[in-house]
């Protein structure tokens, strides 16, 4: 018998009686945790606060769970090349790489996300698309994926999500029962789940997939004016994917072999960099939160700003692809972080995990070193090789002063709101997933159902299967109905789950 779906609501909201019977979640020092799903922010769209010790500890501990392999994006392939700007973005940003005709060297690392180093490349997964620009103002890392959105909107949930997707600590096997349990309580993930379980989750080639910066970024011009932007790489080879049967038949290294083979044949892959821009007022007027990374900026036009070309395979895989260290915090003047809560957490987490994984001097390695002179007071640590001889390793100093010009100060922002750990208010989670689903061809919709039911059908818990189906039904009723039939969920139970969700979330409106 299917257990009452109201139980999910009871567990989510919690009661005093249940709370007393549950173990108290704590930090490593034993202090009890009162909030473990939302980061502390300065108002709804304010920055995430460094004082959020739960967030910092979770991310720092998570970053140190594997030695020496990356916790995520472990299976990677890299190539070098160049980016040539075709449009001048000076009216939006003082970043020097966006001057028409200017060429900037780059290194790109493609990857899977969940699966370990040495795993087959044909497994379903988002694909990392990380680009390191060696600009004349320092390195800019645009670290993203082939998909335009993400599963969650707050970095405090990232360790939990990855734990659910990684192999069980008991069986050491990836288990749909675990990750769908997590996603059943995370409805905002339905848009990303629709993307991943479509054939976009199994690209035919790294050359034939698009890339996305995913987050909104802040562009700042020479006068300090702010514009928000999203970046997307459009493959000039076109987008081509494999269905489930084709992916299962693909050989172990098919993505790497394809990329390396094309470069060896001088069939150099290219991508156009496209940008969407919105003023702060336009972002505020969106019907959803414009800094929610589970959403795209639908209907906002793209402008081409340049072209990326990859033309060189690394001479040494380990010293380049494996030791490459990408971090969204590696930004240049004119490009800053938006209030996107997932991005805010990544600003800390990515740099921290690279300092742990590669070492304190990771950015001194040739693959990571900027092509401009580095001047700071950082010193020592593993593999230090700066050969500095200066006696002054502090700031300020009258003997050996170092400049900090005002023109390189970050932009200012006025913040308002109560400091608290609460979710964003505009949380419509189904509309864009429905737009994506209805944009698929009939064949791709059928593949989405087949791909998704292959994993969801393994879930033993009736409640979890029903909740997931109800999410897809609220995104697109036709697909949800067909999915229910493939994973043994009765439509009356789906209807009840939809009613209960609506009762618990009255501000949200289903898209269908």
From TrEMBL:
Enzyme class, first EC level, given as a word: oxidoreductase
Database matches in PROSITE patterns: CATALASE_1, CATALASE_2, CATALASE_3
Annotated Gene Ontology cellular component terms: cytoplasm
Domain of life: Bacteria
Signal peptide: 1-19
Catalytic reaction equation(s): 2 H2O2 = O2 + 2 H2O
E.C. number(s) listed in UniProt: 1.11.1.6
Residues reported in the UniProt entry to bind heme: 350
Keywords associated with the record: Heme, Hydrogen peroxide, Iron, Metal-binding, Oxidoreductase, Peroxidase, Signal
GO biological-process terms attached to the record: hydrogen peroxide catabolic process; response to hydrogen peroxide
GO-annotated molecular function: catalase activity; heme binding; metal ion binding
SUPFAM superfamilies named in the record: Heme-dependent catalase-like
Pfam families: Catalase, Catalase-rel
Alphabetical list of InterPro entries matching this protein: Catalase, Catalase_AS, Catalase_clade1/3, Catalase_core, Catalase_haem_BS, Catalase_immune_responsive, Catalase_sf
Keyword Iron: yes
Catalytic-site annotation from UniProt: 73, 145
Record domain Catalase core: where: 26-403
Needed co-factor(s): heme
Protein family per UniProt: Belongs to the catalase family.
Biological role stated in the UniProt entry: Decomposes hydrogen peroxide into water and oxygen; serves to protect cells from the toxic effects of hydrogen peroxide.
The protein, known as: Catalase
Organism expressing this protein natively: Glacieibacterium frigidum
